[in-house]
Amino acid sequence: MKFNSTKDIKIPSKINEQVVGQEEAINLIKKAAKQRRNVLLIGDPGVGKSMIGQAIAELSKTESLVDILSFPNPTDENVPLIRTLPKGEGKALINKQRLAAASSFKTQNLILFGIIIIISLIPYFFWKKGSISDVVYSASMLSSMVFIVGFLLFLNLGKRMKLNEVHNIPKLLVDNSSLKGSPFIDGTGAQSGALLGDVLHDPLQSGGLGTPAYERLIAGMIHRANGGVLFLDEIATLSPRSQQEILTAIQEKKYPITGQSERSSGAQTRSEPVPCDFILVAAGNLETVEHMHPALRSRIRGYGYEVYMNIDMDDNLKNRDKIAQFIAQEIKKDGKIPHFSKEAINEVIEEALRMAGKGSKLTLRLRELGGLVRAAGDLAVENNTPLVTAKEVELAKRLARPLEKQIADKYIENKKKYEVIVTSGKRVGRVNGLAVIGAGSALSGIILPIESEVVKGGKKAEFIATGKLGQIAKEAIKNVSAIIIKSFGEDIKEKYDIYIQFLQTYEGVEGDSASIAVATAIMSALKGVPIKQEIAMTGSLSVRGEVMAIGGVSSKIEAAIDAELKSVIIPKSNEKDIVIKESRLKKIKIIPVTSIKEVFYHAMDWSGYEKVWKQLDNKL
Questions:
Q1: Pairing state of beta strands 198-199 and 217-218?
Q2: I need a labelling partner for 213 at 20 to 30 A (CA). Which of 225, 311, 419, 576 fits?
């Protein structure tokens, strides 16, 4: 694709062609739209689930759309009748009946008004003939005027309150007259009344002042989605009862409207079944599958498709063009920011590479990327520039930092201020580990200081770790202990206990990426070999001493750069995952390793401890 700015990029008119990086999902929804199948979309936030739901609605046929009306039931007013008419005819019918009723009402009242005027003039006739006194005439005229005003008020209230009731004008529950395509209803977060329909409470239930039951019906989203798509994100957050009712609606393709509150008078009303033939597009993350109603998921799986959404795509020219198209779409959707120059687009693509956290991959968490686009656009508007430049995108990265990054920056600043993080010199038993906070694309690296101490123990060597460790972190300590026992089991047996402390980790520690740092701290404390404090490290560890890949390597290296460390040890398998600007990467030395022996060699100062290294070299 050749372009100089996003202004040159053509945006597809169809929604399914605007979805980026989800080709498999698009192919499935085309089948789902044609055959009217339900779909369950599972994936991270911001990867295009709601757009796919809209695409299904766009691809669905529209000729079967109907208007839904409720009528009074002469047999039982608490069971309103439900009827359907072709799209647009429901509104026309109601308007026609209202005009007819208004005309009839007007004719009747004009006659009555004429009679009242004549009666009101009778006292004047008798007063003119001298048959009644002035006092009686005045009283009669005042009474007539009050009566006329009262009658006019009655006409106005009667028109408002009784017109529909007297002439049995139906209520239009679902009006599709102005709809051009299939309805797309987003029911995410809706309560049961809004989702399934409700009957309004009527406080005036006696004396003929109440509102008829058929007029108090409120169509739910399942009814408004009839003939189209009902989209429910985070479907597992719905109550089990609501999920069960959704299942019933899918199976029966019709669902009666009743009051959702037992304390309301609407609970006495239950309409005839109301059409709700919709395609359900349910969405959520992996936890959704665990908490979803089993019968509802079974129905979707048996009569539809389950799709796991991509979180990244290959970094190639074709997919880079897709990111450029996404930027153009966001600019058009926002409508308040200028177009991006080619250099600015390339800068956003670089951020997409970094956010993916993997080698040669572009992120598909496009909602976060859209935030960067808008932040850069806002800066361009503030600077009054016709095009967004690469410089503004670079500044926007800091402006649009996620909370995790802001917290990480404060964390490093405070830890350095109080010398919790040491970045120079050599110390025994102390190492700078690396960790991340946040999730998904909102990962931010932090320095994780770890200390170890060896003390006299009992019959069996124990490894005690403190610092609010999670389950995986505890298991990682056990793996490290296996390597230490293998290398120096005889030296510590019946002599020492080994303590490992994660310094000031009030937020807790989870994961195994600090394994090589823990092993280094223990080895240093056990043999008295000092660790270089200008080095940070991250890496998982097998029980055989192999250094394995970890996540968030770019964020961790950036944390080490921000802390002004000189070197960082990472798993060799993570080398391809580093996405950091070359100018920034020059500030630190990257040391890729494959085994714990390499970690010990680079991290420790072996001057004067050659014998220990030789012993270690033979055992590992």
A1: antiparallel
A2: 225
Active site residue 513: yes
Contact between 82 and 179 (Cβ < 8 Å): no
Owner of token pair 């967004």: 388
Would you call 556 a catalytic residue per the annotation? Answer: yes
Q: Tell me the C-alpha distance between 477 and 421, whole Å.
A: 22
List, for residues 223-273, the tens digit of each pLDDT value: 999 999 999 999 989 999 999 999 999 999 999 999 888 777 788 899 999
The Cα-based distances of 390 to 347, 367, 396, 579 in angstroms read: 6, 20, 10, 17
- Is pTM beyond 0.70 here? yes
523 within 8 A of 416, measured Cβ to Cβ: no
What gap in Å lies between CA 18 and CA 4, rounded to an integer?
A: 20
DSSP per residue, 109-159: HHHHHHHHHHHHHHHHHHHHTTSS-HHHHHHHHHHHHHHHHHHHHHHHHHH
Strand, coil or helix: 275: strand
Single out the catalytic residue among 50, 341, 481, 513: 513
Closest CA to 388 of 401, 378, 398, 402: 378
In this structure, what token pair is assigned to residue 290? 């665990």
Alpha-carbon distances of 492 from 476, 497, 500, 519, 529, rounded to whole Å = 20, 8, 15, 15, 16
Find residue 523's DSSP bridge partners: none
Tally: H helices and E strands in the chain: 21, 27
Residue 329 and residue 323: Cα distance in Å, rounded?
A: 10
pLDDT tens for each residue of 536-584: 999 999 888 899 999 889 889 988 998 889 999 999 999 988 888 888 8
